[in-house]
Amino acid sequence: MIPAVRTFGRLLARHGLALAAWYLAGEALHEIFVQLAGFVGGLTTLGGLLLLPLAVAARLVSYVAMYLTVQRSLPHSASDHRPGYRQFAQTTLVAILPFFAFYAAWGMLDVDIKAFFNIASGIALRDASYDAAQVGDRGGLIAVGVLPVAVLVIALVVRVLLARIGGRLPSWTLALAAYAEVVWTFMLFTLVGQWWAQAKEWIAERAGIAWFEGIGDWFGAHVLPVATLWETVLWLVGLVVAAVVVPAAWLTVAGVIYGTTFDATPAVLGRIEQAPPGAVSNLARNLALRLEGLWAALALIWRGGPVVFGCTALAYAVWSWAEQVGSRGVLQLVGAHDTAFWSGFFPLLLVAVAAVAEPLRVAIVATAFDTVVGRPEARMGTRESGFDGEARDLVGAGDVEHERPVGVVGEQEHREDDGGA
Question: Residue range 381-399: average pLDDT?
Answer without folding.
Answer: 47
